[in-house]
Request: fold
Amino acid sequence: MTDKTKTPGATPGDDASGLIQKQLTDRRARNAAELDAISLAYDKHIFKAQGKRAGTQWLTDEFIRRVHLDMFGEIWEWAGKYRNSRGRQNSKPIYSGNESR
Reply:
């Protein structure tokens, strides 16, 4: 798979491990699919919920993973799960799943 949209220093776009929608053969196609899914997740979780959650503790680990799953679950197998490996080269994970809870 050749990625014609590679940006210097960006996470490699040719890593399709965990890709559910095999027809998304380049980074541009995956970005477009992700953008659509992110917009739907925003409408579902953020836009419609504004004001309803005031005064309650709603920004929980479970909620964050649910939003992430809704954003990427139709595209990537890893959606809604904590990363077990380093994503970008030369970067360090800030928090593990246990530390963020």
Remarks:
- The helical segments are 27-47, 61-72, 97-100.
